[in-house]
Amino acid sequence: MYATADDLVTRYDRALLADLAGDDAAPTDPVSSARVLRALEGASGEVNAAARLGGSGKYNRRRKDQRTGQGTARHAVTSRFRNAAMRAAETS
Length: 92
Known about the structure:
Elements: H1 5-11, H2 14-21, H3 34-53, H4 61-66, H5 70-91
């Protein structure tokens, strides 16, 4: 995994992440949430899959090998949570 739940909490509001991580309107600590862990694993998988495709894209294998991949993965993970937060805000 390229990013951790602590990375998310550092960048985004902990209360919002707790709301997104919880079930049935009950907030859950995002650092220990299985839902957050699955989202982080999924986002890391997306980065790895895109890197395997190669080409001239943002995540090609050569560029990934030249970097640690940390910034790219954090962007992918935080984008997923930002999009989920925006969808949640639209429905409330």
